[in-house]
What does this fold into?
Amino acid sequence: MHKKRFIISVDSCKPGMRTAEAIANRYGAIILYENTVLDEHAIEHLRNIGIRSIPVFEESMISVSGVDQDWAITHDGQSFNIKYEQDVHAMKKTLTDISTGKRLNKDATDQIVNTMISRPAENRNMIDAIMQIRTIDEYTYYHCMNVSMLSMMIARWMNLDEAMVKKCAEAGLLHDVGKAKIPPEIINKPGKLTDSEFALMKRHSEYGYMIVTEDRNFDHQVALAVLTHHEKMDGSGYPMGLTGDRINQIARIVAVADIFDAMTANRVYKDKDTPFTVFQLMQQDSFGVLDPLVLNAFLHNITHYYVGSRVRLSTGEVGEVVFMNRMDFSRPVVKVGDRFIDLAVTKSISIVEFL
It folds into this structure.
């Protein structure tokens, strides 16, 4: 039986509570393992390194004298955070089941997608969740959830109808389902893959298509998006080398969401990039790779959410993003103390860390 988990603020943590997953610092290093019983020292350490909330097991929270659930749960986006963690767990079970030979559970994926699209006013919470530090070994499960949320947002920003919004969310959730058929030692390999390993890794989109099409209740356009989300507009992608006019719209949307989440996450083989670095790469280096209409809708909308972000500059100074430059989203205007630095003008200074 699955133990219930709650997202709880570190300030509300009490000795005796147990962590419901491994806790990592901003660099991806594990500092507390799942099932760790918290003590005063561990709680203080979490607070000192800037971790604001953690998942704990419900029964350990209730067993601690004087702790009330409604008081303990983080009040900022509390219901979203709880549901997000539950959905990630459901996706983990889905992929684990597939890796052991079971069929894809459409009821489980429908429940995740239907809940997500029924809460259209939570973009802020979704983007905050996407930017959280996640444990590297559970990257795939969080990535599926994040790509689903981003795909849904892009579809809405493009003013697509709600039927298409749902298909995009579903395709985003399932785009990497084929990785359940790839050996974990390849998925989690810290170094560069060999040619044969990379060839096998690339087959995840084909495996995903076969898994999804086993159930005729899945929309075929969703299945095609799972198959073709690594195709590129200029025909240099895989598995079929399709050009842009032959890649369906859902796959083009998932491709943008997939690249953004992958580049802003810690991976076993690379450190995460700041969102501003990713904006630069997507805006300047994506010609021939991504659909420009999809990319334009994504960048012009998601960048709004980074106004107010705290960043560290290459000078060592910490400032606040106050304005996004549309011509180069990677170089916003940053307020440092009483000064305003326009990074589009002051080319010698750049953002090196997202705080």
In short: The chain has three domains: 5-72, 78-272, 307-354. The chain has 15 helices and nine strands. The first helix runs from residue 40 to 48.
